[in-house]
Amino acid sequence: MTYCVGMMLDCGLVMMSDTRTNAGVDNISMFRKMATWEEPGERVLTVLTAGNLATTQALISLLDERSKAPEDREPSIFAVPSMFQAAQLIANTLKSVISDHANEGQKADSGFNATVILAGQIKGAPPRLFMIYPQGNFIEASTDTPFFQIGETKYGKPILVRAYDPKMSFEEAIKLLLVSFDSTIKANLSVGLPLDVHTYATDSFKIGSQTRIEADNKYFQTISNGWGEALKTALDSLPNYSHDD
Amino acid sequence: MTYCVGMMLDCGLVMMSDTRTNAGVDNISMFRKMATWEEPGERVLTVLTAGNLATTQALISLLDERSKAPEDREPSIFAVPSMFQAAQLIANTLKSVISDHANEGQKADSGFNATVILAGQIKGAPPRLFMIYPQGNFIEASTDTPFFQIGETKYGKPILVRAYDPKMSFEEAIKLLLVSFDSTIKANLSVGLPLDVHTYATDSFKIGSQTRIEADNKYFQTISNGWGEALKTALDSLPNYSHDD
User: Fold this and answer.
1) How confident is the model at residue B31 (pLDDT cuts 50, 70, 90)?
2) Is residue A90 within 8 Å of residue A121, measured between CB atoms?
3) Which residues does chain A have within 8 Å of residue B228's beta carbon, measured at their own beta carbons?
4) Which pairing describes strands B195-201 and B12-17: parallel, antiparallel, or unpaired?
5) Which residues contact residue A21 at a Cβ distance below 8 angstroms, ignoring those fewer than 6 apart?
6) Residues with Cβ < 8 Å from B168, sequence gap 6 or more?
7) Does residue B131 belong to the interface with chain A, where contact is any CB pair within 8 Å?
8) pLDDT(B221) > 70
9) DSSP character string of chain B
10) Average pLDDT over residues A96-105
């Protein structure tokens, strides 16, 4: 499993992903699930991936190689003129990777599916956030649904739904995401530290802060330990049930 | 879907269940998922059910009818001498209901599976809490895992894990459960109000408080509305992330 979140804020975009991959509980590994492409002053695109690791790595490699071979730069993630076309390019690449594996060779026990979050900005338009499905279609975030989750989404969703505020600073948003990730990590063995974080400030057109939060990170430990107490205090602040109500 | 929780406390047992059943999103109904058998001074048993409604209703009917026909009182939920044997009786009944449907007649799109929580006390032993699987086996709660959830368990789990305390009063436990149910109801359309609650006080050997919490219940609304604010306050009480950490 995996847990990744892409979130739109008034100040920009925040992306967070875990690094655990597994084939059964007896075969876990660590892989980066966040990839970023930057052309300073022009575009920054970040992709978060969940699903079959061979599929997601092939997807990132194909997107990368296309960007590296000058004679084959069309379509390229550095050449598409809009985020919508970037989403289309990624969606088509993803669909073809999956169908290559699904229709040829041996059948696998699990599917070759993968789901992708695309977040970024290309000059001339505001930052945009997409969720791309293995079928090759995609949806875009809006003010009604300003964040996307992929992978193990359920444990960490209630706190996002309740506490998300578009006016949050990056620092507040990272705190909120760490609570959401910590709840998920505590409940699902297949989501694990370290976590990758990328914040992109609107109209900066350069990679913002990119950090890896390791298990011994003091701030993460403060949040993880403090959240239990904070929740108990929150619960205490509400009136107790009474059978007379 | 469904959401039910059975919880052991120092003071007794708390059971809560929603009432929504659905076959697709265009066919929802309301059914009670909590059944209770009482022999005052002797035993109280409560069953919570999740899964195929025909299966769970057949299970409850079989357990009920067996208890009503005097000549067929062996095995009966009123005659078994221990909670362990009650769990065995329910597990065997559940398994036979499922296999009757699964092995004969038309194949259904969805399975006939169901999962059951059994909570209660029979004189001579302490209160006990079981989770019974459709395969006919079961597990028992312990101090390590003092509560069981069935149905849509994920959204409401983090708050239970963080805030559960065996020393809670019934009133505090109901508050905690309402927060857990509210988080689930907000996220999954197939879990819905009203909620049934039953509290059983250890060694009382009679049905405790049995209540139905409707959508217009003032206390539920206080919790549902207040929890968002309480969570934001809890999040504010933790230090913000800083890139220097």
Assistant:
1) very high
2) no
3) 162-163
4) antiparallel
5) A2, A28, A29, A30, A31, A53
6) B9, B176
7) no
8) yes
9) --EEEEEEETTEEEEEE--EEESSTT-EEE---EEEEEETTTEEEEEEEEE-HHHHHHHHHHHHHHHH-GGG-SS-TTT-SSHHHHHHHHHHHHHHHHHHHHHSSPPPSS---EEEEEEEEETTS--EEEEE-TTS-EEE--SSS-EEEEES-STTHHHHHHH--TT--HHHHHHHHHHHHHHHHHH-TTS-S-EEEEEEETT--S---EEEE-TT-HHHHHHHHHHHHHHHHHHHTSPPP-TT-
10) 83
Of A155, A161, A172, the CB nearest to B157: A155
B3 contact residues in A (CB cutoff 8 A): none
Read off φ and ψ for residue A195, nearest 5 degrees. -110, 140
> Residues B194-204: what's their mean pLDDT?
98
The two most distant CA atoms of chain B are separated, in Å, by: 76
CB pairs under 8 A between A and B: 128
Q: Which residue, among B3, B32, B12, B1, has the nearest Cα to B177 in the 3D structure?
A: B3
CB B142 within 8 A of CB B103: no
Residue with tokens 């985020």: A83
> In this complex, do A222 and B234 lie within 8 Å of one another by their Cβ atoms?
no
Max Cα-Cα span within chain A? 76
Return the CATH number of B3-236, one of 3.30.70.240, 3.50.50.60, 3.60.20.10, 1.10.1740.10: 3.60.20.10
Amino acid at B44: V
Domain residue ranges of chain B, discontinuous segments joined by + = 3-236
pLDDT (0 to 100) of residue B69: 62
Superfamily (CATH) of domain A3-232: Aminohydrolase, N-terminal nucleophile (Ntn) domain (3.60.20.10)
**What average pLDDT does chain A have?**
93
Task: Report the candidate in B54, B49, B45, B58 with the shortest Cα–Cα distance to residue B2.
Answer: B49
**Does B75 sit behind a cis peptide bond, omega within 30 degrees of 0 on the bond before it?**
yes
A170 chain-B contacts, CB cut-off 8 A: 241
Residues composing chain B: 245
> Residue B70: is the preceding peptide bond cis (ω within 30°)?
no
**Summary count for chain A: helices (H), strands (E):** 5, 12
- What is the rounded distance in angstroms from the CA atom of residue A127 to the CA atom of residue A219? 28
Across the range A210-219, mean pLDDT stands at 96
User: Does A228 contact B163 at a Cβ distance shorter than 8 Å?
Assistant: yes
Q: Cβ–Cβ contacts within 10 Å for residue B41, how many? A: 10
pLDDT of amino acid A69 = 62
Q: In B, which residues are within 8 Å of A219 by CB distance?
A: 239, 241-242, 245
What is the reported pTM?
0.94
